[in-house]
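Posting here for the record, re: nicotinamide-adenine-dinucleotide.
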Amino acid sequence: MDFQEILDSQKKFFRTQKTKDIKFRKDNLEKLKKLLSDNEKLLLEGIYKDFGKSKFDTILTEISFVKKDIEYYIKNLNSLSKPKKVWTNIVNQLGSSKIYPEPLGNTFVIGAWNYPYQLSLSPMVAAMAAGNTCILKPSEIAFYSSSAMAKIINENFPSNYLFVAEGGVPETTELLKLKFDKIFFTGSTTVGKIVYEAAAKNLTPVTLELGGKSPAIVSKNADLDIAAKRIVWGKFLNAGQTCVATDYILVENTVKDELIKNIKKYLDKFQYTEGSEQYTQIINDRNFDRLVKLIDENKVIFGGKTDASKRYIEPTLMGNVNWDDAVMQEEIFGPILPILTYTKFEDALEQISEQEKPLAAYLFTDNSAEKELFTNRISFGGGCINETVMHLGNDNLPFGGVGSSGMGHYHGKFGFDAFSHQKSILTKSTWGEPDLKYPPYTDSKLDWIKKLI
Ligand code: NAD
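Prediction output follows.
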């Protein structure tokens, strides 16, 4: 595959100005939405073959998610792309000032495997809405999902506008050598650094959507039943293979037993059994083996059963965990939930602050002082109070990491902005010409300038 040739054709097409046309953008977004409906069976089959993800989960967290994004952009495109008039300061009178959002141009989106459709197509949709061309490289690890997207897009859109490049590290490495106007990457922090370094060679702006260990703090002031229910749902959705899943719980030690009892209740109730509608497989043998090594049998207080032939790991709770345990040395990204404790709320925040900044953080409490401390003291990409994961379902909230969990944001307006340049133009009238800024310089001109600025 000659990626340079495809990118050159996209550059040529971008220069025709067609992608900037609002009707063109809306028509193509509409077309993609229809293709997602028409090809739902293909999409469901692909992801099921990859890791047994059910129809319910795939529609909820992947296909509907992307369609919702498309609808948002179709509805809001006129206002998002409209030039915005801003106030013109006194030294620039007589004039007017406007900000023109313009597409960056030829973009490259690299997807992760864990939500293969959402994490590939949502950024691509934002790129389309902002008026760009796009080469999308989904993760080769979700092979059948990647093929489904390639089939749908490459058979229905011209490659000089949208193109799905399938492949793994060699193909991504080749693509990263090319000069794009924007690279949008979702994946691990390790590969994020490779992408950032490659982008730097061409001064290409990047959005890096990375991972990390996202904590859930459960205070003694929490509704412990709701806390357990919402943590369990967010954690075991997709078998824990969610970038914003709770990685570990930090619970006030006086309520630990009550919380664990409630968590066990919901684990039973939600029936995360092998092959069930609500549970997925571990994506591949490499990740299965990695996860199994993180389970310390002496610390398992629920679950712990595994089946390599089905790549099944039962939801597993580990108690009495401390920061030296293997499970606390890396992002878990699977159905293992370690429980750590604290005695003072500030200590819980301190433990989190000592780690790399996480992609998400959650707090369960009804205490307003704790809510305020959580919000203002620790740094994390985004999160929830008395909920997990759902913040990313609100298009009005920017989604992204900070520090080693990423840079830049997307979703809704923020996705549009991630693929746009804000071009500012000051338009001056040709009459009314104060002499102040022009030589020869004099003290009285300087006095006026001091007063005006
Ligand atoms: P990954 O970094 O291994 O792979 C991501 C993409 O990078 C894939 O398309 C892959 O082909 C490519 N890639 C892998 N190695 C490469 C290399 N050496 N050079 C160039 N490209 C390479 O990540 P993953 O396993 O697909 O996803 C898991 C990670 O992604 C977790 O850390 C998770 O937290 C994170 N994640 C973050 C978000 C988010 O929105 N912030 C979402 C999902 C996953």
